[in-house]
């Protein structure tokens, strides 16, 4: 309950009341923990009161807190994550000799410099870490490799990776992901696959980030068969991708070529219980409509509605367009009439396409009846002025 109150005060920047709540915790016999400290420090730093956050850490004993390594790590991680790494370094130097540091302490500093691509700063922090008698762990090596990759120093990153075992550290998933990301950044997909296969060969379990990087790189260079194979391996390992990840796989597949591969990803994702986003459904509908795949188009539309998504003007346009492309004019008229009943006026391009096909088949009366229904909707709809004229 206290954490909820502290978060609410921090979001609204009512920092004057934060200390009152902490005093109330102490009086009620509720001991604050590291999560409490994270909430307070993150609120202060997020509210651009960095100096107050540092001073608060220095006054921890007033609130029954102990200035130990864990509490210091919480503050350093928060400062570094919000790009105040210089302040974090200053606090680290101030606490030297008062608190025994560990690898997490230095990894918080190294991590921010690595993401900024500051190789010299990473080296300096690494020397301090080794000087304090601490050995770099897998997270440290992963950050170093990531930093070198940001500077396109891929050969140096490979050298660090190969020397890890000599320094008594076996590469884990985080390190392999950093290596794969580096080769993705330079467009070397073959090396991405080599490190992925090497990772599997040494029984290092790939995670969602691994598959995201590898499959995304393969789709970018249009190696669809390899991407589908890795996608099968991901599902076979028991990893259920989230909605955003599935959308990121379907989107490039709906840009080039027939929709066959996108439908495979869609069906397999639904088969393992993945939730499909509305954006992914619309991408599939656009592609299926363009190629006139009516049976699959209507099936995907039904799945979309069963998932709780309602059809809008854009969806109806795609359905009518696909039915027109396949010559199913009767079904196209039914869908158009459903859209009109729901208050959605079709786009002029789709309506003209359907009208033209009806006139070419001498169905003048049907085209005229449809014209009257569309006209009634447009006359009752508000008009909006845009750069190219009035629109309904």
Automatic annotation (TrEMBL):
Cellular component GO terms, alphabetical: mitochondrion
InterPro entries: PPR_rpt, TPR-like_helical_dom_sf, TPR_mt
Keywords: Repeat
PPR repeats: 102-136, 137-171, 172-206, 207-241, 312-346
One function term, GO molecular function aspect: mRNA binding
Every Pentatricopeptide repeat-containing protein-mitochondrial domain range: 75-197
A Pfam family per the record: PPR
Family under the similarity heading: Belongs to the PPR family. P subfamily.
PANTHER family: OS02G0304800 PROTEIN, RESPIRATORY COMPLEX I CHAPERONE (CIA84), PUTATIVE (AFU_ORTHOLOGUE AFUA_2G06020)-RELATED
Record-given protein name: Pentatricopeptide repeat-containing protein
Source organism per UniProt: Acorus calamus
Lineage: Eukaryota, Viridiplantae, Streptophyta, Embryophyta, Tracheophyta
């Amino acid at each position: 309950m206290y954490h909820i109150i502290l978060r609410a005060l921090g979001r609204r920047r009512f920092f004057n009341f934060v200390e009152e709540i902490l005093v109330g915790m102490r009086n009620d016999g509720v001991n604050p923990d590291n999560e409490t400290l994270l909430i307070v420090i993150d609120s202060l730093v997020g509210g651009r009161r960095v100096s107050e956050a540092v001073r608060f850490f220095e006054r921890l004993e007033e609130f029954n807190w102990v200035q130990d390594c864990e509490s210091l790590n919480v503050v350093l991680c928060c400062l570094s994550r919000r790009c105040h790494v210089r302040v974090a370094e200053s606090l680290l130097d101030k606490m030297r000799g008062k608190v025994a540091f560990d690898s997490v302490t230095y990894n918080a500093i190294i991590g921010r410099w690595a993401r900024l691509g500051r190789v010299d700063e990473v080296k300096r922090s690494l020397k301090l870490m080794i000087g304090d008698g601490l050995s770099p762990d897998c997270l440290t090596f992963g950050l170093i490799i990531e930093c070198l990759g940001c500077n396109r120093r891929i050969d140096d990153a490979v050298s660090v990776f190969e020397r890890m075992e000599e320094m008594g550290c076996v590469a884990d998933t985080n390190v392999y992901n950093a290596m794969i990301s580096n080769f993705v950044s330079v467009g070397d997909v073959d090396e991405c696959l080599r490190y992925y296969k090497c990772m599997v060969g040494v029984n290092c379990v790939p995670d969602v980030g691994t598959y995201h990087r590898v499959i995304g790189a393969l789709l970018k260079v249009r190696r669809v068969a390899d991407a589908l194979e890795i996608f099968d391996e991901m599902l076979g390992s028991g990893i259920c991708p989230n909605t955003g990840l599935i959308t990121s796989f379907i989107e490039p597949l709906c840009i080039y070529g027939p929709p066959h591969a996108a439908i495979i990803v869609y069906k397999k994702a639904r088969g393992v219980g993945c939730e499909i986003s509305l954006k992914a459904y619309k991408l599939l509908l656009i592609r299926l409509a363009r190629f006139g795949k009516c049976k699959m188009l209507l099936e995907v539309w039904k799945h979309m509605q069963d998932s709780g998504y309602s059809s809008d003007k854009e969806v109806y346009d795609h359905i009518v367009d696909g039915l027109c492309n396949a010559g199913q004019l009767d079904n196209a008229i039914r869908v158009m009439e459903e859209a009109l009943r729901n208050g959605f006026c079709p786009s002029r391009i789709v309506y003209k396409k359907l009208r033209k096909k009806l006139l070419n088949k001498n169905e003048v009366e049907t085209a005229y009846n449809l014209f009257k229904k569309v006209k009634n909707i447009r006359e009752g709809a508000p008009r909006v002025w845009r750069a190219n004229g009035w629109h309904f």
